[in-house]
Amino acid sequence: MTSPISGLSAVGSALSTTGVPSTSPLDPASGGGGSLGVDTGSGLAGAAGVTGTDGTPSTSGADFAAILGGGVDKLQGLQSTSDTMAVQAATGSATDIHKYMIASNEAALATQMTVAVRNKALEAFTQIMQMQA
Amino acid sequence: MFNAMSIAGSGIGVSRKWMDAVSDNISNLNDASPTSGKAFQARYVEAQAVNYGSDEGGVRVSGVKLGSAAGRTVYEPSNPIADKDGYVRYPDIDLGDQMGQLMMAQRGYQANLQVVNRAQESYMAALQLGKS
User: Fold this and answer.
1) DSSP state, B88?
2) Residues B113, B119, B124, B125: what is their CA dihedral angle, to the nearest 10 degrees?
3) How far apart are CA B98 and CA B96, in angstroms?
4) CB-CB contact of A109 with A101 (8 Å)
5) Rounded to whole angstroms, how far apart are CA atoms B44 and B21?
6) In B, which residues are within 8 Å of A99 by CB distance?
7) Contacts of B129 (CB under 8 A, 6+ apart)
8) Least CB-CB distance to B2: which of A98, A106, A116?
9) Which residue from A minimizes the CA distance to B124?
10) Which residue has the higher pLDDT, A3 or B7?
11) Which residue, B20, B51, B56, B82, shows the most beta carbons closer than 10 Å to its own?
12) In this predicted model, what pLDDT tens digit does every residue of B65-85 receive, in sequence order?
């Protein structure tokens, strides 16, 4: 994953321009803190882009929300399909048992993928927040 | 997103319909009909690729064809529906042929099930990427 590394290098360049290497990352109100926020966004967007639902990598912070929202919508669609088929299987009106099993497996996979994306994004965010002066 | 699984799912559906047709043929193997009518016609499932050549893969049942209506005429004068010469129509279905098709349909079903399982394992292994 290259985006957290690019985020760190951008923060390093911001430190070198301000000329104060020890105190600026800890202060969110300073210029170092502002660029820290943007780099965190690109890092998270990069993490989401690697496992994006449509496979298109994104490097800007604005697309991360769209990708995550699209992923959650697709997950919601898969879960509702799986629920409908579960009802059909229970009432005996389902024609194909394999369709239900494949739908429920796809929903489980999509759920795990959403959780994995969230974990990675949280991990990247925590690593950056834990950076000491 | 999980194309391999849904494509194999369409293959499973077509194999299931094939098994339905073979089961129908086998259960109606000994249907006797009068010579004035048609014999039981064997059912053949026509499978066709979905949108051949495009990105969308899979198979679908494009139609059902029926076998010959003439069947085979058998001399059975003791049969209550035999005509004045004593002939009765039976369907022209070979049991050995149908059992061979049943085995092919079953193996096709199992092969597509294997594809679904392997694809799911691959996707789940991809989710483990980067875990320490």
Assistant:
1) E
2) 130
3) 5
4) no
5) 7
6) 9, 13
7) none
8) A106
9) A109
10) B7
11) B82
12) 998 888 899 999 999 999 899
Say which residue the tokens 């043929």 belong to. B25
pTM of the model: 0.66
Contact A96 B116 (CB under 8 A): no
- What is the 3 state secondary structure string of B23-70? HHHHHCCCCCECCCCCCCCCEEEEEEECCCCCCCCCEEEEEEEECCCC
B1, A53: Cβ pair inside 8 Å?
yes
Are A49 and A57 a contacting pair, CB within 8 Å? yes
Q: What is the predicted ipTM?
A: 0.75
Q: Please name the amino acid found at residue A86.
A: A
Residue B51 predicted with pLDDT over 90: no
**Parallel, antiparallel, or unpaired: how do β-strands B43-49 and B87-90 relate?**
unpaired
Contacts with A74 from chain B: Cβ below 8 Å = 1
Residue tagged 């690593």 (tokens): A127
Q: Longest Cα pair distance anywhere in chain A, in angstroms? A: 72
Write down the pLDDT at residue B30. Answer: 92
Q: CA of B59, closest CA in chain A: separation in Å?
A: 14
